[in-house]
Amino acid sequence: MNDAVRQFTVAPDDDGIRVDRWFKRHLPDTSFTIVAKWARTGQLRLDGARVGPGDRVTVGQVLRVPPAEPLRATTRPVRQRAPLSDDEIAFAREMVIHQDAAAFVLNKPPGLATQGGTKTTAHVDGLLDALQFEAEGRPKLVHRLDKDTSGALLVARTARAAAFFSKAFSGRSAKKVYWALVVGVPSIEDGTVDLPIAKQPGTGGEKMHVDEAEGQPSRSRYRVIERAGNHAAWVELQPFTGRTHQLRVHMAAIGHPIVGDGKYGGAAAFLTGGISRKMHLHARRIRVDHPDGDKIDVTAALPTHFAESLKSLGFDEALGDNMPADTRPPPSREEKKAKARAHAKTVRKARRGERRGRGTERD
């Protein structure tokens, strides 16, 4: 056990984060309870002053940390990640389609999960050690793609970049464009689906559904790129919110499930004529501000099965990237209601002013 007081200088990547978050990054074996106790008893200091778990640190400040407390006998050992094989390292690096000091963009293949879970041992997160290169920290995921969805996936290379990109995704300033094949052809070629989504009861959270009463607000835009008669269409999709399985749920809800999505479209989600039964949903393009003030704008090539389906249906892949520039997202229901309330309030004020004006008129 180390009985010495420890001192740490706040690094640039940690500028602005909370004290408890700093401990989670750098001293993960120190529980929040211990950090709170140190703060409460005045043992935790930042540049000599008392500091709490929720306070924020600034680059260059010195954090004084008490000696490590002995671990209890019941503490579970930290599970170490198994080293990657040469094939896994090569596979991870082959996915990289953009690289700079702050980020990677990967072209995730269909069938590979983004993160691990029950019975899921192969996933992008487990391969990120292959992309550490000369950096001190391990790359970090900042958003997800469904296991069977392919395409552009952004990975941050530093903790500071991860915080920056996470804010962009949560604030919806990051733009994502998807391509999909859907069953049938929407009657409106450029439309918005505004339907709330919630976890479907009885599925353990594994499946979502439209729930007008309890669902979270969810909006998606679709635009038809090409159509194959009346039995299939190639569409561009944009999620304006980030709900689980949002695009899949919305397209199925309007009667046009994504080809290969049996989970939400059932048997009707599969086409005949040699079209692959795999999911035809691809994150084609990602655009997001860069921490250094520039922009990341990356396009991901289609997986083989999707490209072959387009060709089989007689679609010209070049048409997809020549769609008109996307517009601002249409107002949501809540925004429309707020605008209506504001308008009504303005009208009421104007009428009150008119009545007062009439009362003061003289002949």
Describe the 3D structure.
The protein has helices at residues 19-26, 32-40, 86-94, 159-170, 246-253, 262-265, 304-312, 333-359, and strands spanning 6-9, 45-46, 49-50, 62-65, 96-99, 103-108, 140-141, 150-156, 175-183, 190-194, 197-199, 208-210, 219-228, 232-239, 281-289, 295-299. The model has no long low-confidence stretch (mean pLDDT 88). The radius of gyration is 26 Å and the shape is globular. The chain has 363 residues and is an alpha+beta fold. The protein contains eight helices and 16 strands. Helices cover 24% and strands 23% of the residues. Strands 5, 6, 7, 8, 9, 10, 13, 14, 15 and 16 form a ten-stranded mixed sheet that branches.
Strand residue percentage: 15-25%
Order of helices and strands: EHHEEEHEEEEHEEEEEEHHEEHH
Mean pLDDT figure: 88
Summed up, the helix count is 8
| Gross morphology | globular
Structural class: alpha+beta
Intertermini distance: 95 Å
Number of strands: 16
Contiguous low-pLDDT stretches (5 residues minimum) are none
Q: What does the main sheet amount to?
A: 10 strands, mixed
Helix content: 10-25%
Computed over alpha carbons, the radius of gyration is: 26 Å
